[in-house]
Amino acid sequence: MLETTRRPDRHRHRVNPFELSDEDFRYKYRFSKRFIEKIVGILREDLVHDPRGCPLSPEIQVVCALRNWARHEIQDDKADLHGVSQPVVSRTCKKVAEILSRKSREFIKMPTTLNEQQETIRKFRSIANFPTVIGAIDCTHIRVKKVNADGGQLYINRKGFSSINVQVVCDADLKIMDIVTRWRGSVHDSRIFRECRLKQRFEAGAFSGILLGDSGYPCTPYLFTPLLNPTTPQEERYNRSHIRTRNTVERGMFGDIETAKKTIVACAVLHNMAIDMREDVFSGERDSIEQYSSEPIVQSYIAPSIRGNIRRRQFIETHFK
């Protein structure tokens, strides 16, 4: 009889990440233990144990997902670190993203009351003395794995890689107030805004302030863009203040499209929660953000509307003398 050698079972050693020092924990997971424990508390009821096989605690599920999103490491590395298989890590990241994205309305929202809007406007004005700003808008291309299905070429953006074009509106603290993740990379920024619900709310007079956007958007009475060729001191002051007041960031990820969309929203929720809890979410990045915000964004120029051009001209003459 021929005997086959049975491969011994590989028993994975599952460590407790909360036994790490505070410094090592933040290095591996980007956030503090206090913040992770808060996230676990919010998600605990949804992160039920899998009755099949060896269950993962809510704590391990959350840290697996955060290490994936924060450090962009391959899943095998995270599997070895947390003592779970690669497929389990993949399912866990997807599950945590879905749960967090369902909570987006609770943590991602525009200021609605008059007091909230006035406080947002005040904070924006403190940056570069640009008045009546309630939000800074921009689109950023989130890189995704190449889409091979029919229509996959529509995800290829003008820089030649596959992406989702994500529209984000931030406040003066860089807290995300509105996010749209449903558009493919080939879609222009102006179309995304033209067809979003936020535009309808501005046209209906829901907000007392204006948005600031780059030249990829048309100038309208509620969305001001930089002047293409400033010729007067007032126009130059307007442009300088406009650029300093608006900030953008870019990130990338790999995965299937639907998971990527949920993960983008999940990261936006985490971002806002971290700001609310005063986590240092920009550790090591503030200098690059400041440097980036001091330069104009190169975009295909969109001609302003007549009403928008008139309103912007009146605004500059009133506030930037």
TrEMBL record:
Q: Which domain of life is it from?
A: Eukaryota
Signal peptide boundaries? none
Tell me where in or outside the cell this protein is found: Cytoplasm; Nucleus
Whether Cytoplasm counts among this entry's keywords is yes
Record-linked InterPro entries = HARBI1-like, HARBI1_animal, HARBI1_dom
Keyword field contains Metal-binding: yes
Which cofactor does this sequence's record say it needs?
a divalent metal cation
A Gene Ontology MF term for this entry? metal ion binding
UniProt KW keywords:
Cytoplasm, Hydrolase, Metal-binding, Nuclease, Nucleus
Instruction: Specify the DDE Tnp4 domain's residue ranges.
Output: 137-253
The cellular component terms of Gene Ontology attached to this UniProt record, alphabetical and capped at eight, are: cytoplasm; nucleus
Q: Which family does it belong to?
A: Belongs to the HARBI1 family.
What this chain does, per the record?
A: Transposase-derived protein that may have nuclease activity. Does not have transposase activity.
Report the protein name in the record: Putative nuclease HARBI1
Q: Which organism is it from?
A: Parnassius mnemosyne
